[in-house]
Amino acid sequence: MNAPAVNRQWILARRPEGAVRPSDFRYQEAPVPAPAEGEVLVRTLYFGYDASQRIWLTEDGGYMPPVQIGEPMRTMGIGQVIASRDSAYAAGDLVEGFMSWQDCVLARADGPMPLRVLPKAQYPLSWNLGIFGVSGLTAYFGSTDGLKVKPGDVVVVSAATGATGSLVGGICKALGAKTVIAVAGGADKCRWVIESAGYDAAIDYKSEDIGQRLDELCPQGVDAYFDNVGGHMLDTLLLHMAPRGRILICGAMSSGYTDVKLKGPSNYMRICTHMLTVQGILLFFYRDRLAEGAAQLARWVAEGLLHVEQHVVEGFQRAPELLPTMFTGKSPGKLLLHVADPA
Asked: Which of 135, 205, 267, 300 counts the most CB atoms within 10 A of its CB?
């Protein structure tokens, strides 16, 4: 693959205040960089979208250094190696890892997540950002290692139509869960999680009382809660956990991720009185087990136990407009931007 004549970029023009907007980014063109020792020059093919990207735009940055004003926006992406000064990568390799909103990016293998060389496979290349990427692997390790879902469990998942949540239901059923309940927004999404994503039931947080519906669906309490939302929803679930229940903190979508400082739940003492286990998840801690997780997910896909849903948008110019939709109601599954095809 040859490098393009210019390197198109979407850079951070200003730090967002409140909700992120397309106008927070600015288009520019720059020369294509040359790799130094230990670096790989990658032509980007797909950008992935995750709500956590909003955290990287804060002054704190959350669990990663913040994106600086004047820098291209960081993203998880798929690309193809153009030139390499790292013996582990060769020109033509398809790779997945941390990239940015530009045609060509310099990447390294020694960052917080390894730059993965992607195997030749029968499934779509874009799946490496979804079910076999951060979204699917977080769903897998969150369900298996974090929540330790086992046969007979009653599981609840919030933001159940998201890139991660849309996979948790099927994973938990594959692990033997008795009942898996989705919390989603709107009748269409609630119908989708049952018909397509393997959930047994759904609660529409926009029109239903979550606590009342939990009393109806799981009167003995919830054994495992996969929390992508935080806030009031987490407080409600704390009141409906079974004794010795487990809670996985994966995200806090209700906050909008405009700040890294969030108030904890007011029903905090239920953790004590019901002897609950509360654990977080960050995929960086599983960097040595990613292949293991991807292999198991692939087996479940082959067995028809997992449904893969993705929404692919075309065109580099649309990069900024897609990020706000993570908080305003996008289509179910993984959101991706297709930038180029491999050579």
From this structure: 135
